[in-house]
Amino acid sequence: MAVTRMELKNPIARAAAIEKLAGNILEGLAERRVVQTKDGPKTMSMISTWLRDKPEGWILADGKTWAPVYVNLRPLASAAPYLYRGPTTDALILLLRDMDFIDIEGRPRPHHKIVGLAMAGIPLGAALTVETGIPSLYTRKVNDEVKTDKAFEEAVKAWGGHSLVEGVMEDGDVLAIVDDLTTKFFSKRIGLRQISLQAERSGVRVEVPFVLTVLDREQGAAAEAAEDGIEIRSAIKFVSKGLKQLEELDVWSAQETATIRDYFADPSKFQAPEVREELKNLALNARRVDAAISAAV
Fold first, then answer.
1. d(CA 76, CA 96)
2. Is 235 helix (H, G, I), strand (E, B) or coil?
3. What is the H or E stretch that residue 148 is in?
4. Domain tally for the chain?
5. Nearest to 156 by CA among 210, 128, 198
6. Residue 83: its pLDDT value, please?
7. What pTM value is reported for the model?
């Protein structure tokens, strides 16, 4: 790991380092990469906007909510090393120090472990284990259709005697769930239930005071977590800091930042067909202008 002893020791230096690393992470997440497919080259990025990438925007996982921005950190483990084993893991390590999971020398505290939440949290947890020596576990993947307590109970029955959490869980362990991002808290609550049930099966008592993520979309997860007595620690606070950082890094335009900030403040007003059509036309016009400029050069 590239973090310094001063950053591990001094909270002020640590906070400054995390903010700087957050900018580096965001720049990498928004970078357009060319990947090869059977149909030829395809451009992708992990943070996309309607203006740069897809004029028609996105329909989210609920099947009905439209959004002008799409955040997908699942390819993070395949990203360039500077992103994955550089600023991303360094920022999370500094947050682990804030959480007192490691000491000022970067050594893991006894009986402190991390739990990678299936699926995107698993490679992050593994990377942190390699970098810090903190033991890690990971949860078993839950069907995406599990949206209620009853559905979760049915999923547990289907697993039979299989472990809900893989790895060694011991009495007195202090655990932190690790995942790529937070929006709402439902998937993390499912992970908490898996840990609780596995601890009960194993005859141990554990504590889960933290959820650690790369990015918090700041759409209610922190408040929901607080109801369960859990703190969310994230390298990137997307709305309050990340949007402005992307603009300052010259990754996004002021128009993109303003539109997406308005969206996060009130997604409902962006569901009107006429608003979506206006934004789509704006993006298409911008593409025509860019194409005309390129042709003239």
1. 19
2. strand
3. none
4. 1
5. 198
6. 61
7. 0.92
